[in-house]
Amino acid sequence: EATAAAPHVVLLSSPGMGHVPPVAELARRLHDALGFTATVLTYASSDSAAQRAFLSSLPPAISAATLPPVHLGDGDLPAGAAAIETLLSVEAERSVPAITAFLSDLKSTTNLVAFVADLFGAATLRAARDAGGVPGFLFFPSNLLMLSLMLHLPRLDADLGAGEFRDLPEPVRLPGCVPVPGADILQPLQDRASDAYRWMVRHGERYRDAPAGILVNTFDAAEPAAAAALRSPEPWRPPVYPIGPVIRHHHPAAAAAADDATGCLGWLNAQPEGSVLFVSFGSGGALSLAQTRELARGLELAGHRFLWVVRAPTNAAAAAADGDNPGESYYDGCRSKAGDPVGFLPAGFMERTKGLGHVVPSWAPQTRVLAHRAVAAMLTHCGWNSVLEAVAAGVPMVAWPLYAEQRQNAVMLCEETMVALRPRVAGGGGEGGLVLAEDVAEVVKEVMEGEKGEAARAKVRELKEAARKGLEPGGASYETLAKVVSEWKGAGQATE
Ligand code: UDP
């Protein structure tokens, strides 16, 4: 409960289980370490059972509220056809009046000292201003490479002329960041004629002047040169504050009591230490049918223990009608379609891998799996939450990017941070490529038992340690957040 004196923050999260947890964890950190009360504000479109369960597990000092629904089906936004980035951006834009009203109300009943919006919410910072001058900050849930791309996007867009990013002869170079080939740049930027592209440029423009500051879910040791570049003030953009990793919190008591509905933890308990590859593609990632089968055969060939969160293939409906579809592309990974995921695995796979692997449909308790002593490595789609969770657990990765900014994350992890290995992609890394079973087996063996895997494991353990130290008093991320909130408290004239 908010008392008259406790400083209060409102944090607005974009829809989705890749977005809500880090925002809510930031709220928890502001409460636990710094004495704030908070409201986590979500959109009407983002209500789900998983989200409700997650939000209700937060301490009582953090309340949850949902915005009223906004209309998302006008002529400029054909229902069903719009890209996810467009939908999230339009929902944010159209929610500004409701957010303004919400903040004005809270301002009269609590000691409201700041409003924080996440990556698609730069437009909503106007609501903080309109509600009576509450400072508006951005919480950027990805890394500095991605933030730098967004901040430089208006210029990069102008420089592209008539071409696409993938046509650039040279990789994109951002200050302090690993050079990224154009084809690996953020997926919605791969088609300049798309609505999603225009929205990303508009967000980039707003990032440059809307927020009073940008909190970033990364830490200095993970991106030292980019952190040095972005920590130094520039007149053309807000100050940038690396405060991460902000990842899902473990309550040891709750974890022990929680049931293990998927059987993942029970199965892991029976496996030797450091023997299991965890395979997961984030909250919604899925592969084509052909790629699912290559991955299955590859895991079988590699002969290492695995725990695989299987999704129905992206082309599940077509696959069910036509049988196999070998032309399907590795790059085609996107949100999973309905269907029983296990039914799409090769015939006899479950029986043959009985002693070796555990397959769970759709969802695993990922942070608890990564923390388990039996897990040696993770094959990941490189969503930034998953990467931070793997790093915090000291687990090296195989990079298998699908969408969003995952391909550029993979470049960073494999070529700069050196905590991940890449499989060979037959037919090139772009569209039309497929990772064949033999190449899956090779990269799995390398990460589990090879020299490169050992080097990645040593590196990720260093990063784990650096991340832990950064979050303690005196550490870079801890002190950075403390500095930001002391300004909020000062502005709100809170008693300490
Ligand atoms: N996650 C999970 N179990 C799963 C798949 C995902 O708990 O089976 C969690 C994972 O721990 C992470 C989030 O969902 O916190 C996924 O976020 P990420 O940024 O990695 O990817 P996205 O879902 O946004 O693509």
UniProtKB/TrEMBL annotation:
Q: Which residues form a coiled coil?
A: none
| UniProt-listed InterPro entries | UDP_glucos_trans (IPR002213), UDP_glycos_trans_CS (IPR035595)
Q: What EC numbers are recorded for this enzyme? A: 2.4.1.-
Q: Which residues cross the membrane?
A: none
Q: Name one GO molecular function term.
A: glycosyltransferase activity
For the protein in the UniProt heading, the enzyme class is: transferase
- SUPFAM superfamilies assigned to the protein according to its UniProt record, in alphabetical order: UDP-Glycosyltransferase/glycogen phosphorylase (SSF53756)
Q: Which UniProt keywords apply?
A: Glycosyltransferase, Transferase
Query: What PANTHER family does the annotation carry?
Result: GLYCOSYLTRANSFERASE-RELATED (PTHR48046:SF1), UDP-GLYCOSYLTRANSFERASE 72E1 (PTHR48046)
Protein family: Belongs to the UDP-glycosyltransferase family.
What's the protein called, per UniProt? Glycosyltransferase
Q: Which organism is it from?
A: Urochloa decumbens
